[in-house]
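Hi U.,

Before I forget, here's the chain from the pilot set. I'm dumping it here mostly so it's searchable later in email.
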Amino acid sequence: MKSIKIKGMSCQHCVMAVMRALNAVEGLTDVRVDLTSGVATYRETKPVSEEKIATAIREAGYDIAE
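Structure:
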């Protein structure tokens, strides 16, 4: 499983928005988002660039923690 740290989530609605965004990215599966840690984990069925994942998260209204 790969993971990415997300900034700006504060509730379960935020978690669902990020999950929807990541599930829409072709090549990602088994998406899970943890509100407490702010971490999204996922599996790749084919290579997906980190920038594509980051863009999906940003378009959902959240940011990537550096």
